[in-house]
Design brief:
This protein has about 260 residues and is of the alpha+beta class. The protein folds into two domains: about 200 residues, Bira Bifunctional Protein, Domain 2 (BirA Bifunctional Protein, domain 2, 2-Layer Sandwich), CATH 3.30.930.10; about 45 residues, Roll (SH3 type barrels), CATH 2.30.30.100. It is about 25% helix and about 25% strand. It contains six helices and twelve strands. A seven-stranded mixed sheet has the order 1-2-3-7-6-5-4, sandwiched between helices. It has a five-stranded antiparallel sheet with strand order 11-10-9-8-12, with no helix packed on it. β9 and β10 form a beta hairpin. The longest helix is centred in the middle third of the chain and has 15 residues. It holds the Pfam family BPL_LplA_LipB. Keywords: Ligase. InterPro entries: aa-tRNA-synth_II/BPL/LPL, Biotin_CoA_COase_ligase, BPL_LPL_catalytic. GO terms for molecular function: biotin--[biotin carboxyl-carrier protein] ligase activity.
Amino acid sequence: MAIIPDDRVTAVRAGMGARWSRTRIRMFSELGSTSQWLADHPPDTPTVVIADRQTKGRGRQGRKWASPPGGLYVSVGLPLASMQSIPPALSLLIGLQLVESLHARGFSGIQLKWPNDLVVDGAKLAGLLVERLPHTLIAGVGVNVEGSRVHDLPSDRQAIGLRQLSDQPIGDQLLGTLAGAVLEATTWSPSQAERLLRERWPVFDALAGRNIVVEQSGGTTLAGRVAGITTTGELRLITDFEERHLQAGECRVQGDWVTTR
C-alpha cells in the first residue's frame, strides 16, 4: 500500500478547521471500505479515514457503493458508550451540513434527497451511510468528482460530479471540509437538530411536492406526494388515504425531475 505524503494529511487537517485540528487522520491509497476499516479498528478517539479508491464500498441495505478512482471517500468514526444514544435523524443532519459546506465552497445547485443522497436535478452527486456498532458510530461519505466515471447505478438513474458544478479546487482540503462537516453535525443538541431540520432542510429538499414511489423493506411500496419531513427526520408522504411518516425507504420520483414539481 502506497505511503501517503505528510503534506496531504496537513491539507486535510487545514480543511477540517481549527476545531477539529487534533482529530486523528488515516489516509490510504486504496481500501476495501473506509467505513469497514473503522469497524475493524474501533477508534478510542474521533478518527477520519480517507481512501483514494475503495474496492468494496457499500451503501444502504448492503448495496455496492461505486467508488472509482478520483472520487472523494471519507469515513468518520466516533467512540460510543454502550448505552449512548444518537439522534434519529443524524444521517439527515450530516447531509444538511455537507450540502451547506459544499455550497460555501462554491458548489451550487445541490439538494438533499431523503434519506441519504445529495443530488443535482435528480442526478446523484454523493451518498452517505451512518452505522452504529456496539461501541462505534461510523459515518461514511462518497462524493463523485467526475460523474462519467460512475457506471454502477440503476438504469433509471444518473450521476453527476463536482467538476460539472464548479471550477473550484477539489482535493485533500475539500476532503477535510467534508470530514469537518460530519464531525460538526454530531455535536448538535436535540433542540438544535430539530430547529435545523425545520428551518434549513426545506431550503435543499429535492423531494418536497413531488410524486414518488417508496420501496420499503420486504418489497412493499407506497405511492404519494411528499410534504417534507418531520422534525425527527421521517418522510411525510401524502397517499390517497392518509399522511404516512416513513423512517426508511428507497424513493423514486415519478416523471421527469425538472418538470414534475
